[in-house]
Structure formats: C-alpha cells, structure tokens
Predict the 3D structure of the following.
Amino acid sequence: MAHLENSKFIIKNSLKITFAGFPDAKILENETSNKWVQHLLFGDRIVILDTEIVNERVRVSCRNKVGWIPVDKIQQNQILEVNFVDIGQGDGCHMVTPDDEHYLIDAGKGDNMFRYLYWRFNLDENDNLPMQFKAVVSHPDNDHYLGFADIFDNPVIQFDKIYHNGIVHRPVDHTKGWNTQLGKVEELSDGKEYLLSLELTDNAIKSILNDPNNSSGTGSQYPKTMAKVLSQPNQPEFVALNDQTGFLLGNGGDNEFTLEIVAPILDQQDGKTVLPYLDGNNGKTKNGHSVLLMVKYKKLRVMLGGDINEEAGEYINAKLGANASSVLQADIAKACHHGSHLFSYEFLENINALGTVISSGDDENYSHPRPDTLGAIGRTGFSKKPLIFSTELARSNKDFTSATIPELVKKYQKWEEAENAYADFLENFVDTSANQQVLAQLKEDKIKKYKEINSYLTRYGMISLRSDGDKMVMAQKLERDARSGKYDIYKFEFDAGAQRFIRMD
C-alpha cells in the first residue's frame, strides 16, 4: 500500500503534523464518503493518524474530529495566522507566526480572550503548553489590557516577553510635584507640551509594578494587572516598543517574516527623549501613542494598531513625511480605535488597505463603528470594493436575538450550577473510591458546560487571516453551517502587475 510522502508533514513531539491547504479543506467521514465532519481553514494544524493512503486520502485528527482528508488538501509548511478575536468592546488578536511563535496583541477588557485560549489550547486537559507567549500591550487603556488579568493568573499560559508603548498609567502622586497619571508633562523650548516620563527599560517597569503605592486607588488598574505576570516562575522581560526599536523579528531585508515597529515615534527636544502630549489630554496621549505594528510576510503587509487617533495620525504622517505612504500601506489593517470617528483621513489614505477589520462591542456608549468612519475606510481603501470586517457584525445575529439570548443565558446558568455542584461536593469531600468517581464526573460536567459557552465566542465573531505570503484568505464563521462548509471565505493573491494583493474570483 502507498504511504504519504515525508514532504507532506513534519514530525513534532513524536506527532506527524500537516496543515490544511489553500483556501480550505474538509475532513471527511470515511475513506470513500463525501460527507464532511470538520471544515478547516488554510493553515489549520492537523495530526496524521496513519500515513497509509486509501482512495487518495489519509486518516487524520483535527479540532476533536477524526476522519479522512484528501492528500492534495494538505501541505507541510506552516503559515501566518492572525485571529481577530471577538472580545466585545476593545481589541484582542492572537497571531501565530510561520515559525510557530505565539503573540497576544491586546486582550480586551473581559475574559473573552482567556476563554478563546481555553478553547484553542484545551486548557481543561493541558497543564503544560509547549510554547511561551509574547504579549503586546498596545497602550494602557483597559479595553486593551484588562483581559490579560485572567490570562496572567493562569499558570499554564507562560510569557517570556511583555511588549508595551512605554507609557504607564498609574495613581496620581502629588508628593512628586506633578499631577498627571502618565508622568511628567512639561512645556519645552519650542512652546509645546511633551510627556517626559517614558519607561523604556525592564527595571523601570518592574520598579513601578512592585511599588505598593501603585497597587491601590484610582489609576491602579494598569499596574495591578501587569504585576500579575510577575508571579510566573520565570518572570518575563518588559520591552518598550517605539520607532527606535526597529524590528521585533527580522530586519526588513531578506527575511521572509518580519515585525516592524512603526509607532510610537519618539521625539528629541532640549536633549530629552519625549512624546508629544497630544491636545493637552491624558487619554488622547496614551491612545495616540499606541504601538503600531507592521507585519510583513513575503509580499503581505498587515497593520496592527491600538487606538491611534486624529492627532497621532497627523503626527505620524508628519514624522514619516514623504515616506508615509510606503511605510503605512497595508493589505489588511486592524482599524484603530474600534471604528471611532477620531481619525486622520490622510492617515487612512496612506494605509490604503484592501481589507479592514473592526473590533467593537454591543455594550458600549460610543456607537462604534461610526458611520463616517465606515465611509472613510471604504473611500480610502484599495480597489473598487475594499472589504470591511466587523467582529460585532460577524456574531451579533447568533448571540443577540430573541431566540438565542434565552439559550445563552440557560448555558450560563447550567455552567454556574455545575460549578457550584463541584465546589459544594469538594468542600465536604470524603476521600473514597466512590466519591473520587463522583468528583471526576462533576468536574467533567462543569468543563463540558464551560466549553459550550466558549463555543459561542470561538465559532462566531472571530475574523481569521491566513497567508503563506503569496496567497491569503480572510474568513468569518457562518451563523449556520451550509452544505459547502462553516465559513464565509474571501480569497486573495498577490498580483505582480498591481504589486498588491487582489481579490480572487
């Protein structure tokens, strides 16, 4: 019998690993059936259970499903994966590089990102993940960082790097002679105000996080949340990102995959390293100087920014000057500030994205995404039909209808009941073989019901980008499975003539 060639898989941790081919693939019920049991996106990780080829298929496992997949629908190479998680109001995305490095770029405000990770990495079963994560906290606004609290508290999810923008929001300390939660602000010789308190070293950040004066009272939420990660066995390094950092990965030369830091852009005034104090306002300053990442993979460019606003957009444009368009242009962009109306139109023109992803939530008083923002994104986008994806729209019908709200509430109630039943039994536990069996059943029941809640989050609302640098898909989950599959998939490829990614038929 024929067996799968070694060029179709890699061996990792004694497992034969392969990946779904472009643009998608289906795991079929058996070696002859055309009925699918799982729909996979380009780049999904698959475990090969048997290399024997039967009817041009091999037996595999993926996403808790076992079945058969056509040999021509798998590939050896891992690709770029960027998952824009539906975390409600705020931002949060999980990026997996072609070298299998994992980045969490913001984590929203609630526990949605944690629940996504719980589902993605089977945290009910795994107590030792094979990788360490890297976190990028774009700026100290709680709808970008507070979701890290649950993640940092979980001992299974370990970090080796925490990247940030150098601005630390903390309680006001009147004894130091200044009254801003971001640090010292001074008017310098050019007559403009600047933020001088930039925390650019690992020691500086950890000194702030370990200071008990920063762990209580108004303004303490950011240092308290970030300090949680210091309880991990191997404390991660805090690294401030700015234009002087250059690249997190690669160097922009011949590297196939690079992470370039575009902003914040530091300034030099009166011999001091500073950032402009935007519009005399704390909020605009910490938002505007968010970390702006440009992900480059072969021919693909993906822009990931935090809450860059109008003032910051104008500042970045001015600093980049004639190079603004070449530096900022992206194929896919994460919309800054959740579709807020506080944006620079010229900044959007320079980005000129083919596709834009907006992360926003229902329970907010900002009316994001704003109508004028949607219009501007469409007008400044590349091609006659630029695409706008929204985590809110991608899952709103499933989660929020008169039929599904009671369904979701009931799922939460059943989970709470299972949690309480387990806790009550454990509190009065007498160690016998019969009680051990009951306890195991109760634990299994609460985990099952927790996963049912998480399935809403992971199946609906998330926008997924997958690319090998030459071809790309953008996908969102359908509200109900179709005969053709589970996903609404958009396909793109690099066009040599246009020197841009374009939509495929």
In short: The radius of gyration is 24 Å. The first helix runs from residue 112 to 120.
